[in-house]
Design goal:
Layout: H1 6-21, H2 28-44, H3 51-77, E1 88-95, E2 100-101, E3 106-117, E4 122-123, E5 129-134, E6 145-154, H4 160-167, E7 172-176, E8 182-187, H5 192-209, H6 217-224, H7 232-240, H8 251-267, H9 272-289, H10 294-311, H11 318-332, H12 340-363, H13 369-392, E9 394-396, H14 399-426, H15 428-453, E10 459-461, H16 467-481, H17 483-497
Parallel strand pairs: 5-7
Antiparallel strand pairs: 1-3, 1-6, 2-3, 3-4, 3-5, 6-7, 6-8, 9-10
């Protein structure tokens, strides 16, 4: 019989609530009426005749609550400055995230404190964020600084960019093309922990960049510290061979960083629970210095849920960990459900956890390390295949093979990178040896990727297809993997009816 943990069911119900809540709204009056019905069944359930009905009603009640929460969240975070659309304004606000500096543009997320209109009228919007797109590179703007920007307030129509702004709770955008339209005001009130962490990050980048070749630093910086601009041709090349996930900070990077520090603490005979507690804090610090972006927060929550289970001596599994992580992330921001990174990271981890043991059992293979690595690669490819095809328009046929080579190599690069950062601070004389090894491995990574992407059968471009294809694919995979369990479930239902 298939037994699904309660937390997993709650996470599934919440996801359904978000999907439904984005399309329909439910009044609180309906929830109150339903609550009275639920209370009635709760009372009579003490006679132990309606337990199954009560459980079903409880999950329906949770679904309704989640729909209402989604409705209210979208209402609260909707733009409260729409009436100023396409009007010239002078915006005074504080930079509340690390500036995204690119070759031709600098993106700034600004918490608005005041808006001045052309007629002299002032507006003080509450809880309003604006994306300021500075159409040139500006490196002297820092997190926590307050500026006055002059430009036209734009609110995009429906589309992917609109959905991105909604996920980030951003109400509008302003384009700045002239330096004279940016005026420094002073220091604003921001999170001191984030400000301190970003200051440490800048110091690490300055130290790091003096050891790494300028050719490789954008790739390595993007992989480790979310810095540097990864060239589009490199990103596309990695997409074609199915390993684009290694270029952005994700669970892989957080796990690698955690593993390195756990090994170091083990060398000093630090007890395991204390080691996990220290690394728990380091994961939070790493999330802070890499900018607290949604993928980083997602990965940090996932790994720290696992550590927390060990610290408090509570046995857990991957399904419970993923459920807790998804609930925390989606309660923080339901829009994350529609983020590509959220979908890929969760479905890939879930696929590796479920498909790998099923493949081992079906193929009757011994769970030795090389076999397991290969099967994990296959599982990751199978689980992410339809999403990658849908969002990027590619199917990478060399994905399982390229992951076998590229992922271990990227692990080595990340390990060398973190060790280099430690050696710069602790043992500078070792830094030059690690520097040579790191530059060589990054060169090897790019060369192997270039060769693989040039193979004629490496990937196929796909036309745009319907979302229902993805649902059919995952339904077929679940049915194939759990066919014996479903067969037993149907047999049990037939037996109950008879």
């Amino acid at each position: 019989m298939i037994q699904i943990p309660t937390l997993v069911l709650i996470a599934i119900v919440y996801i359904l609530g978000i999907i439904i809540g984005t399309h329909i709204s439910i009044s609180l009056l309906f929830i109150i009426c339903y609550s009275l019905i639920l209370f009635f069944f709760l009372c009579i359930s003490f006679f132990k005749k309606y337990t199954k009905i009560l459980h079903t009603l409880l999950y329906i009640f949770l679904l309704l609550l989640f729909i209402v929460y989604t409705n209210k969240y979208f209402f609260i975070t909707s733009s409260n400055i729409e009436k100023l659309k396409d009007r010239p304004v002078k915006l005074t606000g504080v930079i509340i995230s690390e500036p995204d500096i690119r070759n031709w543009q600098t993106n700034l997320v600004v918490k608005v404190e005041k808006l001045e209109l052309s007629d002299g009228k002032e507006i003080l919007p509450s809880k309003c964020k604006v994306l300021v797109k500075v159409r040139f590179q500006k490196r002297d703007i820092l997190y926590g600084e307050k500026y006055k920007f002059s430009g036209v307030l734009r609110i995009p129509e429906e589309g992917e960019f609109k959905r991105y702004l909604q996920r980030e709770n951003i109400s509008a955008t302003i384009n700045i093309k002239e330096r004279g339209k940016i005026q420094y005001v002073g220091e604003g009130k921001v999170n001191p922990l984030v400000k301190g962490a970003l200051k440490i990050k800048r110091a690490l980048i300055n130290a790091f960049s003096s050891y790494i070749s300028p050719v490789y630093f954008p790739v390595l910086g993007g992989m480790m510290l979310k810095t540097g601009i990864i060239p589009n041709q490199i990103r596309e090349m990695f997409t074609q061979i199915g390993v684009v996930h290694i270029l952005s900070i994700s669970g892989l990077h957080v796990v690698m960083m955690s593993g390195i520090f756990l090994i170091i603490l083990k060398l000093f005979n630090v007890p395991k629970r204390i080691s996990y507690s220290i690394v728990f804090i380091l994961v939070i610090f790493y999330a802070l210095i890499t900018g607290l972006g949604a993928p980083i927060v997602r990965s940090a929550i996932m790994i720290n849920v696992f550590f927390l289970g060990y610290i408090i001596r509570r046995k857990t599994n991957i399904l419970i960990t993923l459920s807790v992580a998804s609930l925390l992330i989606l309660l923080w921001n339901p829009y994350c459900l529609f983020d590509i990174g959220f979908q890929l990271s969760f479905i890939t981890v879930l696929g590796m956890a479920i498909i790998t043991p099923k493949l081992e059992k079906a193929l009757k293979l011994k769970p030795i390390l090389p076999v397991r690595i290969f099967l994990i690669s296959i599982a990751a490819w199978l689980s992410s295949l339809p999403l990658v095809a849908y969002y990027f328009g590619y199917i990478s046929w060399v994905g399982p093979f390229s992951n076998l080579i590229i992922v271990p190599l990227s692990n080595l690069i990340l390990a060398c990178g973190f060790i280099l950062l430690i050696s710069i601070l602790v043992t500078p004389f070792l830094s030059y040896f690690i520097e040579a090894l790191l530059n060589f491995t990054v060169f090897l990574l790019l060369k192997i990727s270039e060769i693989m992407s040039s193979w004629p059968f490496a990937y196929s471009k796909l036309p745009i297809f319907d979302l229902s294809i993805i649902l059919i694919y995952y339904f077929a995979v679940i049915l194939f993997l759990f066919y014996p369990e479903f067969k037993e479930l149907i047999r049990g239902l037939k037996h109950d009816n008879s």
